Amino acid sequence: MRVILAEDATLLREGLVRLLAEEGHEVLAAVGDGEKLLEVTAEHQPDVVVTDVRMPPTHTDEGLRAALEIRERWPDTGVLVLSQYVEKRYAAKLIGGGDGGRVGYLLKDRVAQVGDFLDALDRVGAGGAAFDPEVVRRLVARTSHEDALARLTPRERDVLEKMAQGHTNASIATLLYISQSAVEKHVNAIFDKLDLPQAKGYSRRVLAVLRYLGS
């Protein structure tokens, strides 16, 4: 894949550049602030942007704001956000933008697990989603739809949590040790219990995840 990196910590940035190159990805640019990230994204329009949350000049939310702008201006570019903390408001906006695909949010501790990081990158690059389980748990804590969610069985909640992390039905089946047909039945039950009828132009899967995250 063609990748752009945005990370102000030089050691981590260079380590990621080397890792991605070793995995056969083309790193088009590696920058240290949100403004430069937008410039190089406009120039190269990569397959995926990997960005930190807090970068110069204020070290608050420059990376996240750049990620949201990239999602809006270049919807075909995937965005994988790396963060030391869970920024709830922006994380919910990320998954709520577009069709819910080509986006990921990982805590930096997860980056140390190289396989998890590369898997997330591959899923985002392929048009899917990849959310750190801890990010999902934190977002769930703010949901305002507990009445609807209370109708779900424990297994249905397990399936919905994996959906929120960006897993496909096949992946959920493997993770929960159930058949894919069982996953499909649970997914359909989730749609029914959350009152999500089939509607042209809308993905019920994305709407279910948004309901789960309370966006």
From TrEMBL:
Transmembrane segments: none annotated. It holds the Pfam family Response_reg. Residues 145-215 form the HTH luxR-type domain. The keyword Phosphoprotein applies. Keywords: DNA-binding, Phosphoprotein, Transcription, Transcription regulation. The modification 4-aspartylphosphate is found at residue 52. SMART domains: HTH_LUXR, REC. Residues 2-123 form the Response regulatory domain. InterPro entries: CheY-like_superfamily, NreC/VraR/RcsB-like_REC, Sig_transdc_resp-reg_receiver, Tscrpt_reg_LuxR_C, WalR-like. The keyword DNA repair does not apply. Coiled coil: none annotated. This is Response regulator.
